[in-house]
Design the sequence.
């Protein structure tokens, strides 16, 4: 019998199918979304490690950062669009596929990515990570997304503004309904849209020069409008700035810089040597406060309940040869049960744990993790921490209460509750502490409130109290 097979065919093994090609930046973005969803990771913490793993820098790193952060910020809007483009509930779409669809939708509706590139790279990603059937589904859905631009989609999928203003804002600005309601109470209806829009703007990278350790001239960028210690970094890696790499400067939102400035500027009666940052983690405000304390012959104690955050504080307060000037120590301690005698300190900063709804620009996942029921526990903690701070400060000393939230339950109502429960405390007028910052009046007379849409900062609340 004649062997009619092709020469060389005997014992040949079938060649393995080539793996679908994937765009590395999109793959990195997808991995970050998965970590945020599965591991409750924080975007700003997981992103650097994923970028390093894939060797992404420069423009690729910037692309991934915007792709991830923008997708998470606008998740509610994109889910409403996707729901109009699929033939099933989004709850029945595999989570890995939905992550990819959100990434593709952000590219199509909010980034300057050509439609063919956004669709083809997303489909390749889904084919590689899930399979060909899911890839075909993704292709069909994203082609439907291209039918309208973002504004037209919002008009189609958001509730009517006239009959359901909260529902319309929730979809159009991608905030949970309860957050929209709380922010409306805090800022008022006239400024609500501007605030919600500011929450969706990528924040500027702001550096801080710690006095006595670094100067503004060492830092690249334009000086910040309100803080005398900051600059806005226009581009590049902050870690590549020598002063930042050496710990003499750091990355810090201008609003946080202003909190530290106000805490140091508050008048005290008599001695002014012992300062306390009661809730210090991760240590940015402590580092600036310590530098300001050193310049005035004072020393700062930094306390933090969580051990891993206390280690971050210690790292921020160390120089090349040990603790920097102005630091008395870093303690792992519960601020509601502090290991100090009453009246030990001359001034205390209470930057209390809060919902973080004032920092949604920088913490895009926070809006989807917080729940209305979180408020009760946080408010109880805030009141307890302020009470501890007032016990720890001596008569004539000052306590600055700050939160990265404009929610009235965490700001005005906490202060009112504390004042109502004690006869040895009075609320001071804090307006002079940041007199150079316009339109910063808080919800209580004499308090301060910074805003993303007014000041370009996180929405920091400040109230100054004195032990009498």
Sequence:
């Amino acid at each position: 019998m004649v062997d009619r097979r092709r020469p060389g065919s005997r014992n040949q093994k079938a060649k393995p199918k080539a793996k679908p090609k994937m765009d590395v930046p999109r793959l990195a973005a997808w991995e970050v979304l998965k970590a945020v969803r599965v591991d409750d990771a924080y975007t700003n913490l997981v992103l650097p490690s994923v970028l390093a793993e894939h060797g992404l820098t420069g423009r690729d790193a910037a692309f991934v950062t915007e792709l991830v952060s923008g997708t998470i910020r606008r998740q509610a809007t994109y889910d409403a669009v996707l729901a109009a483009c699929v033939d099933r509930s989004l709850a029945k779409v595999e989570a890995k596929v939905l992550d990819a669809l959100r990434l593709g939708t952000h590219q199509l509706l909010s980034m300057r990515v050509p439609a063919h590139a956004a669709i083809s790279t997303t489909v390749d990603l889904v084919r590689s990570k899930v399979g060909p059937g899911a890839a075909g589904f993704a292709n069909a859905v994203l082609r439907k997304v291209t039918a309208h631009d973002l504004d037209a989609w919002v008009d189609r999928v958001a509730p009517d503004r006239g009959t359901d203003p909260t529902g319309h804002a929730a979809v159009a600005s991608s905030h949970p309904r309860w957050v929209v309601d709380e922010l409306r109470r805090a800022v008022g209806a006239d400024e609500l849209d501007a605030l919600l829009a500011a929450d969706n703007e990528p924040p500027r990278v702001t550096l801080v020069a710690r006095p006595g350790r670094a100067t503004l001239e060492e830092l690249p960028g334009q000086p910040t409008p309100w803080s005398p210690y900051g600059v806005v970094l226009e581009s590049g890696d902050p870690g590549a700035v020598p002063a930042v790499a050496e710990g003499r400067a750091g990355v810090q939102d201008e609003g946080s810089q202003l909190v530290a400035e106000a805490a140091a500027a508050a008048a005290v009666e008599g001695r002014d040597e012992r300062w306390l940052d009661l809730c210090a983690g991760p240590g940015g405000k402590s580092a600036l406060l310590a530098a300001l304390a050193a310049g005035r012959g004072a020393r700062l104690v930094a306390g933090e309940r969580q051990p891993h955050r206390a280690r971050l504080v210690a790292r921020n307060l160390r120089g090349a040869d040990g603790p920097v000037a102005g630091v008395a120590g870093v303690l792992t301690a519960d601020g509601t049960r502090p290991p100090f005698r009453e009246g030990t300190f001359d001034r205390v900063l209470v930057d209390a744990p809060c919902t973080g709804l004032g920092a949604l620009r920088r913490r895009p996942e926070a809006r989807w993790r917080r729940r209305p029921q979180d408020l009760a526990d946080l408010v109880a903690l805030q009141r307890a921490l302020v009470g501890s701070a007032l016990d720890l400060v001596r008569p004539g000393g000052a306590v600055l209460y700050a939160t990265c939230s404009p929610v009235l339950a965490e700001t005005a109502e906490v202060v009112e509750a504390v004042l109502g429960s004690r006869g040895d405390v009075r609320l001071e007028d804090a307006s002079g502490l940041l007199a150079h910052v316009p339109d910063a009046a808080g919800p209580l007379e004499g308090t301060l409130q910074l805003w993303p849409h007014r000041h370009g900062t996180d929405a920091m609340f400040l109230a100054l109290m004195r032990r009498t």
Remarks:
- Confidence is low (pLDDT under 50) at residues 1-11.
- The longest helix spans residues 374-392.
